[in-house]
Description:
Layout: E1 3-9, H1 13-23, E2 29-34, E3 47-59, H2 64-75, E4 79-83, H3 88-91, E5 107-119, E6 122-128, H4 135-143, E7 163-164, H5 168-184, E8 189-198, H6 205-216, E9 220-226, E10 229-235, E11 238-243, E12 246-250, E13 252-257, H7 262-274, H8 276-294, E14 303-312, E15 316-326, H9 333-340, E16 348-349, H10 351-361, E17 372-376, E18 382-385, E19 390-394, E20 399-408, H11 414-432
Antiparallel strand pairs: 1-6, 2-3, 2-9, 3-5, 4-5, 4-17, 5-6, 7-8, 8-16, 8-20, 9-10, 10-19, 11-12, 11-18, 12-15, 13-15, 14-15, 17-18, 19-20
Helix pairs in contact: 2-9, 6-11
Amino acid sequence: xxxxxxxxxxxxxxxxxxxxxxxxxxxxxxxxxxxxxxxxxxxxxxxxxxxxxxxxxxxxxxxxxxxxxxxxxxxxxxxxxxxxxxxxxxxxxxxxxxxxxxxxxxxxxxxxxxxxxxxxxxxxxxxxxxxxxxxxxxxxxxxxxxxxxxxxxxxxxxxxxxxxxxxxxxxxxxxxxxxxxxxxxxxxxxxxxxxxxxxxxxxxxxxxxxxxxxxxxxxxxxxxxxxxxxxxxxxxxxxxxxxxxxxxxxxxxxxxxxxxxxxxxxxxxxxxxxxxxxxxxxxxxxxxxxxxxxxxxxxxxxxxxxxxxxxxxxxxxxxxxxxxxxxxxxxxxxxxxxxxxxxxxxxxxxxxxxxxxxxxxxxxxxxxxxxxxxxxxxxxxxxxxxxxxxxxxxxxxxxxxxxxxxxxxxxxxxxxxxxxxxxxxxxxxxxxxx
Length: 434
């Protein structure tokens, strides 16, 4: 089924974005991806909105990548959705038996009836031919939205009480076990994660997302809605992108706080860029990503374009590396995801051993956290983020969750790792607890 295209110039793209996202709430399926005009290399669009499912794929982990491959081939169109971390169980002999308060499907994609692609101060609408008569009416409705009138959007109810699944003493105890595994040689790096949560709580997801996005301004922000499941993400990290025959991965490892004093902030960034422990974390994951990409790459094409470059975001400074390759011509888009998932920055190394050990030591099922949100185009190109700095919400269960993690190496100091987790959790906590 073909799509009808209409291009619209925008005098105020930011205003239109806000109106568009408010207008989209009438639909049961929404996926919004926003670069926040961050100058991140390789971005294809400034922002993308997909709404209103023509078809859906929702599946548990077993056989998930095969199901996605079939779905993509059958629909032969843009598809949008997420991959949960627990798809690790589809690619390896692993399991996920920890507590799950969110109950999201482990893989979910949909083919949207309406699609909005932002670039160069304009937006291109791509509607299925069955919905092409709605374009002008939709544009009129979008431009009439008064998103600044937020009085009706305010969350009501009792104050949100955030709980820790693992308290400080428990965190220190578990980190000692991770370090014991490292010293024994079972692993040499692991991403250990902990959950913060709230029960019997209602929120306005769009209001919370807008507030989170305002204070974070991240290049891979996303808002996802499927019925009563919501993902409100301020992710700064790209998992993987495919453009033509080129595949790009940009893992983040290495974090430093920011300062409101410019001179002090510059010192913090400079120290991060030279910190041996943070650099070692990043390089270990770069090696893992190179190995993953080699499974789908033409021989000799895997390159490290950028190693441990310090980037600044509103909340933190981070070290990012960029690894590219030329894909093997016989490899499908879904197989690239299959062979590189979960992303090394959220697992550790060696990957399988790290995932096995984290399953034992962590208290909760990661689910969508540590997974990826994005899209696959009709040509097989794709772009996916890493689901971090994100709030997950099951409106039906009134359960809110956000998790944070950190890379643990032989040089890790439990107290400093705990402080880094609290730093990463700060933005999510700030928008929930007022």
